# Entry
Amino acid sequence: MSLRSLLPLLATAALPLVASAGAPPDPKRTVVLIGSVIEHGTLVCKPGDFPGTWTDLHHQVGTVRVDADGLEKHRGKAVVVVGEVTEEGRPEPKYLGGGCLPAQMRSDWEPTPGGMRIWHGSPADFRRVRATSVTPLALTVSAKKPGRARVQYTHPDIPGIKAIRLVMHYEGCYGKPGSDEVTSPPLPVKPGKTVSYDFPVLSGDKDRDHVATSVRLSAEGEGVVFDLDASLYRHGLDTKCPRD
# Structure
């Protein structure tokens, strides 16, 4: 079943259904979720146990917990998930700016079993999904010119979205770490169309260099949530600070 065939469900999934006699209405709604697969869990902190012990290990796509067989093979990569919402509510970070040793932690850092992630907020209004399909998102990053990172994106089979923006995230190289962002202009898309945009690898002046580390997608579509924060390294480009 293609994403296109599921889109009519997305437009009506949030509406109450009229139940037949003796059958309660089905509260589930179908969504499309686009994001990177990460491992998460519950962090247990005990004296002398730094950085702590992770329990209840599971996978998230973006900031949403997703239940699906074989999701671990996509870890670190961008995917398109179609599924049913099983838990409503906006996702919240568990350990923002903290963990078992919160000293010197930046306020947008969140520990995960695989390392720190940058918390950009969540565009979703649901916390958990049971997937009916998981497919890779066609997203690559390459160095086409010196000092430039080309992001190439092929729009999946999701009609109704006219344009996207690519957002490059930069992390500070030296001194007190900070961050920066550069956003592309709107890029027209349709199912199967490939678009690309070139970003500088470094942002800022020579004393406050920031290096490109991940890319996000910004777009709006009914029943579709773009919750992507894709590592450049995982998608083809290993960027480094000038003196590394």
Observations:
- The longest strand covers residues 30-46.
- The chain is about 5% helix and 50% strand.
- Residues 3-235 form one domain.
